[in-house]
């Protein structure tokens, strides 16, 4: 699962990295959560473009989003078969602009278990290209909302001590084919695999990140690691709503 991420470098960094013509002046966000507007890059008419979308995909066939699960993640292993994601995998792929994401390690078991938050970022400091799927949704009143979900895959060796899943982090050479709708779904899906361990840096961070009300540049800053409370148990997806459909 990937339920929180952060984006803090100047907007020009992402514009240069992805090559879109828009010049958005968006502020840094350090605790982005599902249902919030998030910046993505997509490809339309042969060019890349910047766009803000709702994090949490609404399929085009959805009549009423009230009570519908928040689909903030899409498992790449099953996206081609899931009604909510298969059309987007074929025709509407995007990349979430990010510097990194947060994940929680579960220490101990039972009632005494604790969760330690970590910031996961690229070791080289480059933008982290998170594979995504997007879908335009239109309400009965004519309102339109662009929605998106982060694609996930199995965790690599580095992340596996914390969680069994991770967002699909695209290699630089995979960005163009992922965004190109001419690349078919099976070939695109093969781009979403666990990234090399050497790409990532994990830092324990303070527990202020646990609350979405906190959103400041100090959240992803490393803190001294706390000693584990017991046996480390990799976290499992506790809510099926994020990836089920």
Description of the molecule:
With 245 residues, the chain is mostly beta strands. The protein is built from four helices and 13 strands. Strands 1, 2, 7, 8, 12 and 13 form a six-stranded antiparallel beta sheet that branches. Strands 3-4-10-9-6 form a five-stranded mixed β-barrel. Strand 7 and strand 8 form a beta hairpin. The longest helix is centred in the N-terminal third of the chain and has 8 residues. The two termini are 14 Å apart.
Describe the SSE topology.
Elements: E1 5-7, H1 11-18, E2 29-32, E3 37-44, E4 47-55, E5 73-75, H2 86-91, E6 93-96, E7 100-107, E8 114-122, E9 130-138, E10 144-154, E11 165-167, H3 175-179, H4 185-189, E12 200-204, E13 232-233
Parallel strand pairs: 4-10, 5-10
Antiparallel strand pairs: 1-2, 1-7, 3-4, 3-6, 6-9, 7-8, 7-13, 8-12, 9-10, 10-11
Order of helices and strands: EHEEEEHEEEEEEHHEE
Q: Summarize the biggest pleated sheet.
A: 6 strands, antiparallel
- DSSP helix fraction: under 10%
Total beta strand runs: 13
Number of helical segments with 4 or more residues: 4
The percentage of residues in β strands lies in: 25-35%
Structural class: mainly beta
Q: What spatial form do the alpha-carbon principal axes imply?
A: globular
Which spans have pLDDT < 50 for at least 5 consecutive residues? 227-235, 237-241
Q: Averaging pLDDT over every residue, what do you get? A: 91
The rounded distance between the terminal residues' Cα atoms is 14 Å
**What radius of gyration results from the CA coordinates?**
17 Å
């Amino acid at each position: 699962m990937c339920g929180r991420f952060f984006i803090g470098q100047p907007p020009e960094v992402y514009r240069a990295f992805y090559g879109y013509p828009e010049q958005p002046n968006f502020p840094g966000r350090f605790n982005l959560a599902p249902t919030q507007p998030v910046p993505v890059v997509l490809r339309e008419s042969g060019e890349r473009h910047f766009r803000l979308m709702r994090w949490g995909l609404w399929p085009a066939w959805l009549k009423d989003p009230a009570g519908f699960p928040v689909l903030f993640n899409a498992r790449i292993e099953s996206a081609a078969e899931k009604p909510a994601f298969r059309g987007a995998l074929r025709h509407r792929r995007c990349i979430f602009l990010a510097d990194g994401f947060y994940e929680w390690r579960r220490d101990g078991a039972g009632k005494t278990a604790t969760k330690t938050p970590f910031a996961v970022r690229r070791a080289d400091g480059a933008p982290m290209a998170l594979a995504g799927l997007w879908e335009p949704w239109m309400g009965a009143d004519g309102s339109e909302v662009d929605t998106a979900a982060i694609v996930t895959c199995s965790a690599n060796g580095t992340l596996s001590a914390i969680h069994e899943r991770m967002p699909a982090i695209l290699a630089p050479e995979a960005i163009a084919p992922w965004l190109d709708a001419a690349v078919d779904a099976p070939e695109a899906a093969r781009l979403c695999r666990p990234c090399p361990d050497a790409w990532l840096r994990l830092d324990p961070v303070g527990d202020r990140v646990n609350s979405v009300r906190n959103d400041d540049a100090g959240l992803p800053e490393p803190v001294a690691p706390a000693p584990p409370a017991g046996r480390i148990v990799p976290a499992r997806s506790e809510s099926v709503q994020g990836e089920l459909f």
